[in-house]
């Protein structure tokens, strides 16, 4: 019986793809003089920031600070919800489903994105890196969300645009769904065997209905 939907934030509920790409390019290309292509940078989407940037600098905290300064400065201009997300979240709530955000984004910026887009009104639980010792792709963030919602992990679907989301959900024992509108090569996500691949998050309603029928 599915009782909750656990969503990644950036690239899944809100479109920050341009913001993230520009933030990486500023930190890597302009500050470190590292010639990193857009295609390579996009493969880092969904990965914890320190893991990405330590590939290019031993002084990773300084580069993270540069990235976050640029990201924060341009966030509101380049952040928007994906079309139809707000209506979908409202419908999920009307159907009695709990909704959580499980993100690698630090809490202040995650809350800022949710407030800016008006999606925060539909979110029951928000899990950010500050809330767990282990982060994606480990299952602890999804486990923590389920704990706070008072459900078993097998009663949730983890949805995201990165294989880190899929691995997190699988490690926690959740069902998993990858969104096809990811900026990453879709084949990269499919290699990690998500239970579902969806074009629109509204498809989750039918998925939940089918799983719950089978459970009954």
Can you describe this structure?
This protein folds into two domains: 4-15 and 80-215, HAD superfamily/HAD-like (Rossmann fold), CATH 3.40.50; 17-78, DNA polymerase, domain 1 (Orthogonal Bundle). It is an alpha/beta fold and 216 residues long. The strands form two sheets. Strands 5-4-1-6-7-8 form a six-stranded parallel beta sheet. It has helices at residues 17-31, 38-42, 49-53, 60-78, 85-94, 107-117, 140-149, 163-172, 186-190, 203-215, and strands at 4-7, 14-15, 80-81, 98-102, 125-127, 156-160, 175-179, 196-198. The N and C termini lie close together (8 Å).
Helix percent reads 40-55%
N-to-C terminal Cα separation, in Å? 8 Å
Query: How is the CATH topology of the largest domain named?
Result: Rossmann fold
Number of strands: 8
Q: Kindly give the count of domains.
A: 2
- Main β-sheet: number of strands, strand sense, barrel status? 6 strands, parallel
State the secondary-structure class.
alpha/beta
User: What is the mean predicted local confidence, pLDDT?
Assistant: 94
Write the layout of secondary structure elements.
Blueprint: E1 4-7, E2 14-15, H1 17-31, H2 38-42, H3 49-53, H4 60-78, E3 80-81, H5 85-94, E4 98-102, H6 107-117, E5 125-127, H7 140-149, E6 156-160, H8 163-172, E7 175-179, H9 186-190, E8 196-198, H10 203-215
Parallel strand pairs: 1-4, 1-6, 4-5, 6-7, 7-8
Antiparallel strand pairs: 2-3
Enzyme class: hydrolase
GO molecular function, one term: inorganic diphosphate phosphatase activity
Protein name: Pyrophosphatase PpaX
């Amino acid at each position: 019986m599915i009782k909750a939907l656990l969503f990644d934030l950036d690239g899944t509920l809100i479109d920050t793809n341009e913001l993230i790409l520009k933030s990486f390019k500023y930190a890597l290309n302009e500050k470190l003089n590292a010639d990193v292509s857009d295609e390579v940078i996009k493969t880092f989407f969904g990965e914890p920031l320190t893991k990405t940037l330590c590939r290019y600098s031993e002084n990773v905290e300084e580069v993270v600070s540069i990235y976050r300064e640029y990201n924060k400065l341009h966030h509101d201009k380049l952040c928007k919800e994906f079309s139809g997300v707000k209506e979908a979240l409202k419908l999920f709530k009307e159907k009695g489903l709990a909704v959580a955000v499980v993100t690698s984004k630090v809490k202040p910026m995650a809350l800022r994105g949710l407030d800016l887009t008006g999606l925060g009104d539909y979110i029951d639980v928000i899990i950010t890196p500050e809330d767990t010792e282990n982060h994606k792709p480990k299952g602890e963030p999804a486990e923590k969300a389920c704990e706070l919602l008072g459900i078993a992990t097998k009663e949730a679907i983890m949805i995201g645009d990165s294989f880190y989301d899929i691995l997190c959900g699988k490690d926690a024992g959740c069902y998993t769904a990858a969104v096809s509108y990811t900026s990453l090569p879709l084949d990269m996500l499919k290699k990690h065997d998500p239970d579902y691949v969806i074009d629109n998050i509204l498809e989750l309603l039918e998925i939940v209905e089918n799983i719950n029928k089978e459970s009954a």
